[in-house]
Design goal:
- This protein has one domain.
- Helices cover about 65% and strands about 10% of the residues.
- It contains 3 helices and 2 strands; from the N terminus they run H-E-E-H-H.
- The chain has a two-stranded antiparallel sheet with strand order 1-2.
- Helix 2 packs across helix 3.
- It is flat.
- The N and C termini lie far apart (about 50 Å).
- About 5% of the residues are buried.
- InterPro entries: YtcA (IPR031381).
- It is found in: Membrane.
- Its main location: membrane.
- It is a multi-pass membrane protein.
Length: about 90
Amino acid sequence: MMAMAQIRYRFLLASLSIFLTGCDPLLSLQGSFWPAWIICILSGLAASMLLMWQLVRYRLAPHLGSPLLIAPSLWALCTFVIWLVFYAA
């Protein structure tokens, strides 16, 4: 018999997969269709790396706090802004 934690874990994975099935809008890149959220995540990563580099370059990064909190937060911010700018209707 499976442990209760394993049952909860499998239920969580099954319920999350339902929400991940609707990946519209799709973008056609050289004949291959990509979900737009993948493009936004990758471009958000590039933008956050560029912004973090600028913060280090102008010596502002030490004043912001822990890089383990700042870098992922900046990545999420850039991803969501790109999504809103290009796909908010």
